[in-house]
Amino acid sequence: MLVVVVLFATVLLRAAIVTTFVYFMLPAKRACPRCGAQLALIHHSLLRWLLPAVEHRWCLDCGWSGVVRVQSRVIRRAARS
Ligand SMILES: [Zn+2]
User: Fold this and answer.
1) What is the CA(34)–ligand 1 centre distance, in A?
2) Number of independent structural domains in the chain
3) pLDDT for position 58
4) pTM score, whole prediction
5) Ligand 1 centroid vs 58 CA: distance in angstroms?
């Protein structure tokens, strides 16, 4: 039984490492990674509920669509001022 718990813990640890790595690979800016234009937010109620740390955005200029990190409140305040 101990072997199963240890193996399950290593699987969970690997999943956490991969999730963290993928999260930090996502673009954090509100600018398109292809052309640099502003991105429009696409609301997904299920995505917001399941993964509140990411949001789906779409570029109106070049058509790029993808998932980006949600900016923290501190960064948003600094960008406004
Ligand atoms: Zn673009």
Assistant:
1) 5
2) 1
3) 95
4) 0.69
5) 8
